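Session log. Operator J.P. requested a structure for one protein chain; no other inputs attached. Running the standard single-chain path with token output.
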Amino acid sequence: MELDKTLLESDPVQAADLHSFLTNYGAKGMYSPMKFILRLRPDIHKELSQLENRLVKRGEVTDKQIQAFSTFFHETIHWWQHVGSTSGLILSLSHPAQAHINHGHLLEFLKTIGPVKSILKYNTQRARPDNQNSHEFKSVNNILNNFYDIEYCRGILWDPQTIREIYKSPYFLFIGHCYEITWASTIWLLSATFSGTQNVFPDPRKWESKFAELTSRKVEGFFESSRIGIPPLGLFQIYEGQARFSQIQYLYYGSGETLTWDDFRKMGMLDGVYIVGFELFLKISGSLWPEKISDPLVALFLLVCDLSINPSDGFPFEVYHFESFITTNDPGRRFIYFSTAIRENHSDLKSYIKEFSIDEYQVSSKILCDSIACETPLSIAAKIVEWAESTPSIQEVVRELEPFKFRDENLPVRLFFSKFIEFQKSKLEHPHYFCWPGAWSAGTRTSTEKLELFLKHQAPFVDKADGIIYPVDFPGKVESVVLETFNKFYAWNVSYDLCRQWITKEGPFDYDYFWLTTKYPFEDMEKWVKHVFENSYNVPIDSFSIL
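Structure written below.
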């Protein structure tokens, strides 16, 4: 197989602007976590449109189709990372959590102050030391503190280097507080969505005195001006490394095991953020760059990625040790701990994973998780499945997923959590596939079973060659029902974004939602957006005073 750079992703895209995406030569695909959208460039769509069976053996399809699919495969793994890991769940639900936790405070703001935008600028202009305890500013402080606690936690989890700027913000207290509020807000959001779960999910109210004690004792990370070490990578680097090396495995086995590391280096696929995690893993674990892509060391790296992005303290399990709440839940630190454990006590694992089997996954994940006293991803999956089988309100949302028709209340949370549960069920049975999907999705290992797994766990909302977002055509689901859910999902999504604009963005509200569709004129889009906002906050958006 001769690799074609025009079909292979080379630049990670974090912005979700459609025009920038379509005109960025290096960006062949992207997954936008705030919008829950998977996009591909039109040239990738063109190649994939001719491909029926997407998990292929060498000789069944063209080399170009395999390479085009590898980009779709890469972006689908990003969807899996967000919907199938506990870190991804926290990240994905943090956006609706910011709106949910502030909804009552925003209504109070409207009652006491009125429709004013932005709340951040209002606070900057009006706040004084002598009015901070006034009724007027209680809602302002609650809104901004809640919003930024979650915002900063998300930033630190994604890329720890952002802490250098976050430390300068007047809305930042300390990392432990950001983590506590974010985990608690996620659980409160889920509890508000699913009735009767007070004794199912961990109870954040029981954490408050424990975290307050850490603050009083000035435990590092849990008091103001506290300094804590910054890991050299976060979810951004781990996610991209996991997706890229899985893509490389897919292409390697799809090529009949003929491609080499040099082939991928020439394509620019082993540059920048894509190899930060792998090079750090090699350095910490005391390993040299492997000769072949099939080396067990590559499989071990992908396992370390899987373990790192699945913390369990506080969700779905109770907090076992409050002093280590930051370190046990921070993916970058977990990555370092696992890599260190390999070097110091488990170097035999470097050559252990040869067949990408379920037994190899179970044994190696248990060894490494035991080494840092945390739960395995399989234990996490079993816990989630237990909830789904024993809790009526969660059973209900599982049933809603079948026809893809959800109750209106917190619909995006219901949809996303149902997909999270569905993923955990599959992972409990096939953890080796989701850890090493590249090895199981091309070449001699691929099968009808693996094809069905991949298709089952596609991102539900994707673009087509015209750049417009559509719901995926899942087998057995009624198109009109799926389309109705799609429309309601994005109405909620727009309300989250408008809430974000109201709190932090200066100037008028921005109604540019053409990243979603270009089928309607601006006037119709504006009318729809205004209707969405008024439904959420009972006030016309045109009534706002812009500061």
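Operator note: The radius of gyration is 23 Å.
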